[in-house]
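Journal club side-thread
Mid-discussion, someone asked how the predicted structure for our own chain would compare to the paper's figures. Pasting it here so we can look after the session.
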Amino acid sequence: MGNKSSSPGPPSKPSDSSEVNKAEQPAQQKVCVNTKSSSLDADPGATEEEEVCELPPPMEIQDHLFKPQQTPDFTIDPAEPDEKALAGEAEDTSKEKQALITQDDDSETTTSQEDPHEGSLETTVPDGREREKSLQKRSFVLKELVDTEKQYVTDLGYVVEGYIAVMQSGEVPMPEDLKNGKDKIIFGNIEAIYEWHRDLFLAELEKCLEEPERLGLLFRRYERRLNMYVVYCQNKPKSEYIVSEYIDTYFEEIRQKLGHKLQLPDLLIKPVQRIMKYQLLLKDILKYTERAQLHKEAEDLRKAVHIMHVVPKAANDMMNVGRLQGFDGKITAQGKLLLQGLLLVSEPSTGAKFRERQVFLFEQIIILSEAVGAKTPFSNQAYIYKNHLQVNKMSLIEHTEDGDPLKFTLCSKDPHQEGVSFIIQTPSMEARNKWVSNIRAILETQLDFLRAIQSPIAYQKELTKDMLPSPSKTFKT
């Protein structure tokens, strides 16, 4: 009996069971006493046998901490089976927690489940779920793009088939002041925009619902056509001014006749809002495409996002240029608009203090203007021309006498503007560097242009010299 009770497996188990059985009925206490006594008798021999038999690691005795407190069953050895079951439960719990973590779409942190190099089942299964979830969310944004496009076409129709049709029919008498061509300025090229979206672009977007990979290529294909919005925005300030004069009379009468809820300015701003909205929707679609690891589609979408960043910026810039009043020259002849923004400007020759100026930097000219008037629901501020410098007749001094790092100076070299200079202060170092680098670049371009005109042969030789490869090592013959 002593040898049987001294087997290496049970010694740790009876000690646990005896403690549990102290709370049980008296009939079971005898079993506990016998078990306990047998285990005590076995202690001297247990040491020797433990050296021969392979025992589980000592830490496994702690597995009871994971078990619910209940009366143990002495007919089953719980050590091995319960440990595996509990390990499986812990693994399932870990997976559930990980799944909850990955549901946070706004988190920029990726989990280990998203590592494509992991090959275990624990990583590949969540990867599949995450990819499916990303594609589903992408389809939601794509549907929003198409649905809002349909509404946009409807809104444009209210203008073209509503206001323009009524004005052309003469159903509502047109004021004489609008008959001299101002009616054309009101709407700009909105008819061309409407027809393109209605007849072509909307249908192309709808195809992307079934073939999302077409979307990025679609915006790249129609990049030049989308520049019609730049033309529309350049005309927008003039349109706002004319509409504001008749918003409560002529255009209100047309609105009531058409039964529209929105006023004409609310409809004419739709193209401006739409060209800005494309970029936001494309960014969301790109985000979910990247999460789904569709690399080719993501690359096309990145190019589309860039296009829809450049076009709205150009449109917004030209809309501000369109608000410039009092400049005698032709804006379209001044080259590309490179920069524009609100800066502090001082003219030392007049002793004037720093004043806020809306500054426009073109390839051929820099224009200083003053913002006037208050922004209203129907119009924005206008810019009144104050002064300008021709790029080919000005110089840049990158540092001022007071050493302020945010300032730089532009000096006129025009004989008709002798002694004229402007100290310009930017709001930040980033803005200052951007303005200075752009001005420096166009001055260098102008200098190259002048050298090419004055000494074309020498200039061509210099260009040819720059294009030749560097001389290789000379070898003795």
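Post-session note: The chain has three domains: 4-82, 128-322, 325-464.
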